[in-house]
Each structure stands twice: as C-alpha cells, then as structure tokens.
Amino acid sequence: MTEPLLQVEGLSVHLPSGVEVVSDVTLTIDRKVRMGLVGESGSGKTLTAMSVMGLLPSGLTASGSVRLGGQEILGRPESDAVKWRGSRVAFIPQDAMASLNPVWTVGRQIAEPMKIHGVGVRADRRDRVLELLDRVKINDPTRVARSYPHQLSGGQRQRVVIAAALAADPELVIADEPTSALDATVRTDVMNLMRELSASFGVAMLVITHDLPVVAHLCDRVAVMYGGRIVESGPVNTVLDNPMHQYTGALLPSAPQSHLRSETRGEPLPVIPGTVPPAGQFPHGCPFRDRCLAADDQCREMPPMVERHGRSYACWHPLEVAS
C-alpha cells in the first residue's frame, strides 16, 4: 500500500498552564486528496493546522505524531522545519492583504519561496512567476508581477497567494479559510480555481473552514471538529448527506446554501443551542454534550471512535443513516 502523505496521530496542543485545547487528533491525508477540516470558530481547526506547519504561537506545545511522507516532523527544530515548510508543505492564509508584503512587488513575493528553496536561477524563477500568474488566471501577468498588493483587487490578491503557495511545487497545501474574505461571486471562482489547480499540480490539500459549502464544493473528504477533537470524518458526500454525529447533524442545517439542507423559503436558519465554550473549557466526556438535545448521563464519558458505513464517528447517540 502507498504510504499516506500526511499522517497525524494523537495530536494534542497544550497552553502554558497545561490545559489541553486540542485533544488526540488523528487525521490521514493521501496524496492528491483534498481534505476539509470543518467546525465552528473555536473548535481547534487552526491550532491543528499550525501544529502541522510547526507554527504554533509562542507558549503552546504540541505532542503526538505528525508524519510527512513517513518522516516525523512534529517537534523538529526550526532549522529542519524551514527545509520542508514552503517546499513540501505550503500555506494559503485567510487574509491575503495582511500576509502579502506591501513594499514588495507581487512577482518578488511569488519568487521568494523558489529562491529560499533553491528552485532554478533568477531567469527561471521570473518565467515561473509569469507561468503561475497565468495558471491562477490573472490577466496580464507581466503587469501584475510588477504591481504591489494594494494595486490589486481582493480576488487578485487571493490568486497571488495561491500562486506563491504553489511556487516551490509542494506536495500538500494547507488553506486556512481561503475564501472567507471574498464576496460570493469571487468565492466561487477561487474554489473552482483551487480544485482545478489541485488536480493539475497533483497536490493534496487540507482546507480549514467553518463554511460547509466550501467543503462540499472543494473537498473529497471531510473531518468535523468540535471541542478540540475530531468527532466525525469520512468521504465528503457520505458525511454531508448522512451525518452520524449529533454535532454534524446540528451543523448542517445552519448552512445557508439550499443544496446542503432542506430549505423552506422565508424560514430562518436553525441555530445550534448555546455557544462554543472558550478553548480548554469544554465539558468532560463528549465535548458537545452541553449543547446536544440528545445528551444524557452516558455522554459524561468520552465516546469511542467507531468505524461504520465508510466513516468514523464518536457519538453515544449516532443519527440514523438514511436508507
């Protein structure tokens, strides 16, 4: 069997106080597969991604195992991390304007990962920049390469950070809320572009989002996260069409797009009772139990992860699979 590209096992993240904010996350991404990591804000999605990248905020520590192509990368010194960060694993940020250097031209910023990782000579990198701008469907690549970020639209800037992420031919791209800052029309265009580029470049993706329509449109598989834990995972159509975990089942109807729920025109969207607790303050046992309408005393114990119907879930009171 081919070894997974990314294999996360028992990943936990702790605050300086020792409080655990991400707990026992296990996640596998095969080569060329697009995986969505979805959940409400505060569920632990971004901390999981930052652990994989080796970019946790100061004071937070991670334990467990993160293997990239079979090689352990969690806890490696920064001198090792810079060798694979950008070359094997690249990052697409949420806010392109905030992540781009305002005093560097777009072309220089796309070329920078290639320069850091020794890809080609200067002329080769210049040609590669224009090729990438063309691949992300930027009109007049030569002009845009000479432009500064403030001279571009939001959609163009997002295409630029996608081009920069692909510059050094990574095997995995981690995208953190890649469409949240875009309007609806541009969002669809960027999702289509990311799907197309993933296929044509042969890269896997880990897409961090709270937006279920993004997962439905872009991903092959999905992992649902709540309370710092993976509560359900599997093929995207299987999970979204027939959720097993009570949290997944409550999350889906709140999506505004009608293709993810049975919609009655004019009715307000359902809302999950309560709010997401602060990190490290989720209840013992099932982290969703204080907001779950099906919760009982059994939910005070952590449910085991169960394999069933082509997916994994951890719920004492799973929803019935539609026949």
The total count of helices amounts to 11
Number of DSSP strand runs: 12
In the predicted model, the low-confidence regions spanning at least 5 consecutive residues are none
Helix content: 25-40%
Order of helices and strands: EEEHEEHEHHHHHEHEHEEHHEE
Beta-strand percent range: 15-25%
Description:
This protein has 11 helices and 12 strands. The model has no long low-confidence stretch (mean pLDDT 91). By secondary structure, it is α/β, with parallel strands linked by helices. Helix content is 31%, strand content 21%. Strand 4 and strand 5 (71-72) form a beta hairpin. It has helices at residues 45-53, 78-84, 96-99, 106-116, 122-135, 141-145, 154-166, 184-201, 212-218, 236-241, 246-251; strands at residues 6-14, 20-29, 34-38, 61-68, 71-72, 89-92, 172-176, 204-209, 221-226, 229-235, 306-308, 311-313. The strands form 2 sheets. An 8-stranded mixed beta sheet has the order 6-7-8-3-9-10-12-11, sandwiched between helices. A 4-stranded antiparallel beta sheet has the order 2-1-4-5. The longest helix is centred in the middle third of the chain and has 18 residues, at 184-201. The chain is globular and about 65 Å long.
List the helices and strands and how they pair.
Layout: E1 6-14, E2 20-29, E3 34-38, H1 45-53, E4 61-68, E5 71-72, H2 78-84, E6 89-92, H3 96-99, H4 106-116, H5 122-135, H6 141-145, H7 154-166, E7 172-176, H8 184-201, E8 204-209, H9 212-218, E9 221-226, E10 229-235, H10 236-241, H11 246-251, E11 306-308, E12 311-313
Parallel strand pairs: 3-8, 3-9, 6-7, 7-8
Antiparallel strand pairs: 1-2, 1-4, 4-5, 9-10, 10-12, 11-12
Helix pairs in contact: 4-5, 4-7, 5-7, 7-8
